[in-house]
Every structure is written in C-alpha cells, then in structure tokens.
Amino acid sequence: MQLALWTYEGPPHVGAMRVATALTDVHYVLHAPQGDTYADLLFTMIERRHHRPPVTYTTFQARDLGGDTAELFKTAAREAFERFAPKAMLVGASCTGELIQDDPGGLARALSLPIPIVALELPSYQRKENWGASETFYQLVRTLAGPQASAERAPRDKSRRPRCNLLGPTALGFRHRDDVKEVSGLLNQLGVDVAVVAPLDASAADIARLGEADFNVVLYPEIALTAAQWLQRNFGQPMLQTVPIGAGATRDFIAEVVKVAGIEAVDPAQFEPRATWYAKSVDSTYLTGKRVYIFGDATHAIAAARVAVEELGFTLVGLGTYSREFARETRAAATKYGVDALISDDYLAVEAQIEAVQPELVLGTQMERHVAKRHGIPCAVISAPVHVQDFPARYAPQMGVEGANVLFDTWVHPLMMGLEEHLLTMFRDDFEFHDQARPSHLPAHRPAVNPGASRGAEVIQLPQRETAPEIAADVAWTVDAESELKKIPFFVRGKARRNTERFARDSGVATITIETLYEAKAHFGR
C-alpha cells in the first residue's frame, strides 16, 4: 500500500455515487462510517450542484461495532425508501464498511421493499472510481432492462427516424453535460433521435427501455462499455465506440453513425469546425512542432494525442493514463505516435516523466496543472480529476464540432501567452516597446499638463526617441529566410529584421538563413 497526497480516482463507491447522483429517481444506501460522508462535497462544492446526492449513509460509529450494525443498515434502508420513495435502490458498502461484512444486498432484500434492489459488490481495495461507476451502471442495466431482454426484437419501422441511446455521462463528469448537448444536436442534424441518455438525467423507467433503441453510442468507455456490451449481446444493439473528440474523430463518428443507422451519407464539410482553419492559419504556424505531454483518463488522453499530432501539428513526447483497464488501448496509441506509454496512478511518476521529457505544453488533469505550474510549463486540463473551475458556467463541450473549437482555444491560448511573454522579453529594451514608452497611437509630443498650472507654465520635455541602428549593407537574406521573416507579425517584423542583421554582422555571417534567424531570436530572447 502506498500513501499518496493526491489520487486520480476515489474508491469504487464514489463511482457508484456518481451514477446514483446522475439518475433522477434512484437512491443509494451506503453502509459507511460517519467520516465517509465527505463524498457529498464532491458534488455540492466542486460540481456546484444545487442539491445533495441521493445517498443515505448508515453513519455507524466505533461504539456501534460492538452491537448490531446490520440492524443499522436495515433501518437506514427502510427510512430511505419511506422518505424518498425511489423507483429503484442501490445498496453497498464503503471501503470501511466493507470490512464489517454485513452483506447490504441480502439485508435490503430481506426488507421486501416493492422496488428493484441492486446490490453492489465493489472491492474497494482492488478497484477504483471509474470501475465502480462502470460496474454500478452495468448492474443497474442488467436489473432494470433484463426482464425485457427475452422479448423478440421487432424490426425497425422504416417510416420513423433511427433512435439511439447515449451511454456513459454521469454526475461529476468532465464536461459530460455539455458533451451530451453537443452530440445530441449533431445526431439530430444527421436525422437520428436520441431515445435515452443514461445515466445522466435518466429515470429507472428510462434504464428499463434502453433495449428499444436501434443502437448505442458509447461516449465514455470507462463507464459505459461493459453495459453496452451486455445490451449488444442481449438486445442485438450495435454500439458505436468512436468518441467524437476532435475534428477528425468527429468525421469518423459521423461516418459510423451513417453506416450503423442506415441513413444517407452527408457532406462532412458542413460539420467542419473553425478550429480546422485556425490550425492552418499564419498565427498557428508558431505552434507547429511544440512538444506536448498528455496524461489523463484513457478516453480523453488517446483522443488528445490524435488531435495534438494530426490536427495541431504538435510533437508528442509522452502519453499516459491512470485507467489501467484501458492500458492496452493507451499503449497502442503511444506506439502509433512513437512514444512509450505510462500506465500509472502515481502522480509522482507522472511528474518525473514530465521533468525528463521537458515539454512545452502539458495536457492533463488537475494534478498535472499543479505540476506544470511548479515547473513553469503552460498547461490545459483535458480530463478528470478536475477542480471547480473546470465546471464552467459557459457552454464548453469537448466533443463534436464545437468541442473541437473549444479544444483549440483551450490548448493554444496557454502557448500564445507564452509567445507574448517571449516577445515582451525580446523587446524590453526597444525604443518603442519598452515599459515607459507612451502608447504608439497617441501623439508622442503631447505633454503631461498639471490642471492647476497657468497657461504660461513650463512645458515638460519628453525624451527624444532613439533612432533605429544602422544596418550593415553587405548582409544578404536567402529566399527561405525572407519567407520565414514574413510569418512574424508586421508590427514587430522590422525589429526582428534589424536584430537579425545586427546579429549576423556581429557574428561575421554574410548570408542570413533560417537558422541564423532563429539563432538571433534565441540570442535576443535571453
């Protein structure tokens, strides 16, 4: 066992809480000591929900261990049913409650409540949060949709639009609510209706009718893949596993929907995000080849690697995940892009790798944000675990067309800020751009006048502007160097030319090449 200051995932019962909190009429009775009620804060403080999770704790104390803790659980379950009137009940134990071995499932069934009871056996010391969410959703689907599995599936009525389920979004998920809105809108444009979104905002009745849809879309495999596989086996529902994060993946997703739903092909150009053009624009050429390190849950990390390399032109120097269940997929992606995958839930191992590869941008979780900040590296959050600022009030999906635009802005802006800081350093001694220089769009001769002074008061003389240094006439530029120089913004291009020619003269270089240009840039940026 390893003591950690930070952890990427909580215990599996927190995953069960995320599923229960996402649902509308399902209650979770958790056999847990008083201290384990901390999990409520995850939803009310970090996600800023306006109501508590639908969880009842037995909250046994040390003195109760000598008595009948089983009776405490039965009382808590009975009172939860009477008070909240759920349509289904999840029962289980926290990591501490698991040690008592009271069998919450058997105790709940002994109460003969008139609702489905879903007993969760979540091994707290072998598994973690995302697995707990996956197992909870799977058991819930089996219990509620299972009775309909034996019914013969009727062929689809060709007069109606195809229907699908969106599976995987939960409470406390990274941009899950916005992703659902974006993907639902995209499917509607394609001519596909969304039957059920689960577990987010779904009822027990919605879970029971999952088998009525024509196919399933697995938005978050860490949570929904197991349930989708069960639905495929028992209802014959195809499942889409292309996660539409990034412009390329969104195009692939659209093609897969068209194929599975049996609808007419569409022109992908109508779904092209602005980010595709922005990534090709002049400003973005400064970002080409930037070294990026990526770490997060497997779904977001693998998708981010594709976007970074294939759409933004970054150089991937590291890729990893804490999702051990998806280690194979992560290693395959890492091999594709020529790096070694890091499969670890130790944030210190991640920090050590970041220090070793020296990236110029880190895409990771809240913990990588802290690491990058300590090392002075730009960072953007792409995956849970996240903090309160990653549940923005604005619409900010990660998936679909608008999601691709959000990714571009979120990832590129930290690098652009770094470019601005570099320019400020490079031109800190320039006669026009230094800290004391007046705004260039205002008259340079305008004096600072004391309002109380008379008209005959002495006029304050401003310092004369320095003249630009003379440049050696015998310095020549190659065609490639001139072309590269034109990529520099016009308002600093003259300064860059003068500095480069001065550097060439001082270095005894007669012909300026691209290499000379960047050597001069590094020299004056020190």
TrEMBL record:
Query: Which cofactor(s) does the record list?
Result: [4Fe-4S] cluster
Keywords assigned by UniProt, alphabetized? 4Fe-4S, ATP-binding, Bacteriochlorophyll biosynthesis, Chlorophyll biosynthesis, Iron, Iron-sulfur, Metal-binding, Nucleotide-binding, Oxidoreductase, Photosynthesis
GO BP term (any one): photosynthesis, dark reaction
Q: What is its EC number?
A: 1.3.7.7
The segment(s) forming the Light-independent protochlorophyllide reductase subunit B-like C-terminal domain are 477-521
The reply to whether Transmembrane figures as a keyword in the UniProt entry is: no
- Positions of [4Fe-4S] cluster binding: D36
Q: Give one GO molecular function term.
A: oxidoreductase activity, acting on iron-sulfur proteins as donors
- Among its keywords, does the record have Oxidoreductase? yes
The family annotation for this protein states: Belongs to the ChlB/BchB/BchZ family.
HAMAP family the record matches: ChlB_BchB
UniProt-recorded name of the protein: Light-independent protochlorophyllide reductase subunit B
